[in-house]
Specification:
gamma-glutamyl-gamma-aminobutyrate hydrolase activity, nine-stranded mixed sheet, about 25% helix, Peptidase_C26, globular, PuuD-like, Rossmann fold, 6 helices, Glutamine amidotransferase, Class_I_gatase-like
């Protein structure tokens, strides 16, 4: 079959190139490169009207919710912690709608960092708003080991403990409805979430595979998207 089309959510930020300084829809190049490396066709999805999320997801074979800003604490019934960053309200609304549409349509879904946190919030979970030890200096990824939980989709994808690129200061607190924790850091932080196989492919990781050299998580998404695509 043809390469599956994988949507990637994007930032909406002021950016500079050449003589221009304008609002831009952007995402680190590691995301589309990883999709391409795994055999998919990347399609960038800038923040849009949440009412169009279902129609957008219907055009896709798979969906990646990318990393980025802290989720607005009001989304999970909390007051902002002093260390919580400014919210990206349009992006929160758009990506939550994308997640809900993908789960409803059983379109294969991969959440990365913020994407894991949004999946948890979308299903009624809460977040720890600040923790130390999971990021390097500003703009620099740290690395630490994660261990997959036995019997999970993640363990089938990454059967051994792995060192991963990490850059986050928030994490899962209470699990959302139906979610299973499928990897942990040494300090007990949940590092991956998934829904049982009956929901289709729905996996999220707290680390940044697009910043490393291990494509297996994206390989799994693209393989699921290939199986779910028309004509597969």
């Amino acid at each position: 079959m043809s390469q599956p089309l994988i949507g990637i959510s994007t930032y909406q930020e002021e950016a500079r190139w050449g003589v221009w300084a304008l609002p831009a829809a952007l995402v680190p190049a590691g995301y589309p490169r990883l999709v391409q490396r795994s055999g998919g066709l990347p399609a960038l999805l800038p923040p849009g009207d949440p009412d169009t999320a279902a129609a957008t997801v219907a055009r896709l074979d798979g969906l990646v919710i990318a990393g980025g800003a802290d989720v607005q604490p009001a989304r999970y019934g909390a007051e902002p912690h002093p260390r919580t960053g400014p919210p990206a309200l349009d992006r929160d609304a758009w990506e939550l709608a994308l997640i809900e549409a993908a789960l409803a349509a059983r379109v294969p879904l991969l959440g990365i960092c913020r994407g894991l946190q949004l999946l948890n919030v979308a299903l009624g979970g809460t977040l720890v708003q600040h923790l130390d030890g999971h990021a390097g200096p500003p703009g620099v990824f740290d690395h630490h080991e994660v261990k997959p939980a036995p019997g999970t989709l993640l363990e089938r994808t990454l059967p051994e403990p792995v060192s991963v690129p990490t850059y986050h200061h928030q994490a899962v607190d209470r699990l959302g409805s139906g979610l299973v924790a499928s990897a942990y850091a040494e300090d007990g932080t949940i590092e991956a979430l998934e829904l049982p196989d009956a929901y289709g492919f729905a996996l999220a990781v707290q680390w940044h595979p697009e910043a490393g050299d291990d494509p297996r998580v994206m390989d799994a998404l693209v393989a699921a998207a290939r199986g779910a695509a028309p004509g597969a």
